[in-house]
Amino acid sequence: MSNNVFGASKITKFIAYLLLGLYTVVVAYPLLFILFTSLKTNKEFFTNLFGLPTDLQWVNYVNAWNIGKLGQYFGNSAIVTAVSVVVTCLVSLLGGYALAKLRIPHADTVMSAFMVFNFIPGIAIYISLYTMMSRMKLTGSLITMILPYIAWSIPFAMYIIKQYFETVPQELIESGRIDGCNEFQTFLHIMFPLVTPALATIVVFTFINNWGELMWANIATAASATIKTLPVGLLNFKTEMGVEWGQYTAGICMVTIPLMVIFAYFQKYFVAGLTNGAVKG
Question: Per-residue pLDDT for 281 more than 90?
Fold first, then answer.
């Protein structure tokens, strides 16, 4: 009986590793394909589509950065994403703490009202949103993207923070108050250090959503070419003469690398934030 169980366990483990290996190939191959294509000439792209590059064309990255103006667009994306992530985290931390620990009447109803906005498709409000931005004379500047990104990110981020704060014992707050801390000191010195995993979850989600957002960025940057972000800037490589695939995929790599770096850096805290009550239902 024990031999049968041991044999079944080995088969199960083999199948699990096989499925994980296949999944890894499925996920990794598109990334490798983009990387290899970014190091090819246009001619080699069409004649050697799935093969390794024979002559590494690092100049594609230089041309994409300078000629394709991705250097300028990279800076715009960095500013827009950094500001939106910082403001989203700050507002969500304070709001989530207030809704979870300050005994605000109907706090769950308030949170549910915030979450309703997550179910409104962005495309349904683009026209009215752009009209409002135009009347406020905000078009033509990066604030046209920063404000909507913050507004779209706050409901989910605040939900994550609120659910995480609710797992923190109330006795910790009471002990801080007994020691003479006011509400802000209690939040800063006692609660804030405990919420790092949830904060990392917010940073990762907000960064990914805002860094690669295209539809609203394409609409918002129509008024000025100088405020284009990286996803919009990649459209420059599509011309009437076709696509410079080497430079185009080099630009895609530039968009992808920061996402991988951010996730790799926050991975440990990100997983902890998801498994330690941050998405408690």
Answer: no
3-class DSSP assignment, residue 239 = strand
Contact yes or no for 232/218 (Cβ under 8 A): yes
Phi, psi of 116 (to 5 degrees): -60, -35
CA 156 vs CA 49, 114, 195: distances in Å: 41, 8, 16
Tokens of 180: 């003479």
State both tokens at 49.
């589509």
In the beta sheet, which residues pair with residue 243? 238
pLDDT band at 241 (very low <50, low <70, confident <90, very high): low
Angle between helices 245-275 and 196-211 (to 10 degrees): 160
Per-residue b/e over 109-134, b at no fewer than 16 CB within 10 Å?
A: ebbeebeeeeeeeeeeeeeebbeebe
Predicted pLDDT at 240: 52
Cα distance between residue 205 and residue 193, in whole Å: 20
Separation CA 97–CA 100 (nearest Å): 5
Could you identify the residue written with the tokens 């989530």? 96
| Neighbouring residues of 240: CB distance < 8 A, sequence distance ≥ 6 | none
| Fold for the domain defined by 59-275 | MetI-like fold (1.10.3720)
Q: What is the mean pLDDT of the chain?
A: 83
| β-strand partners of 43 | none
Query: Residue 238: phi, psi to the nearest 5?
Result: -100, 110
Residue 243 amino acid letter: V
* pLDDT band of 7, cuts 50, 70, 90: low
**Under 8 Å CB-to-CB from 257, ≥6 apart: which residues?**
none
Question: In the beta sheet, which residues pair with residue 238?
Answer: 243
Q: What is the pTM of this model?
A: 0.82
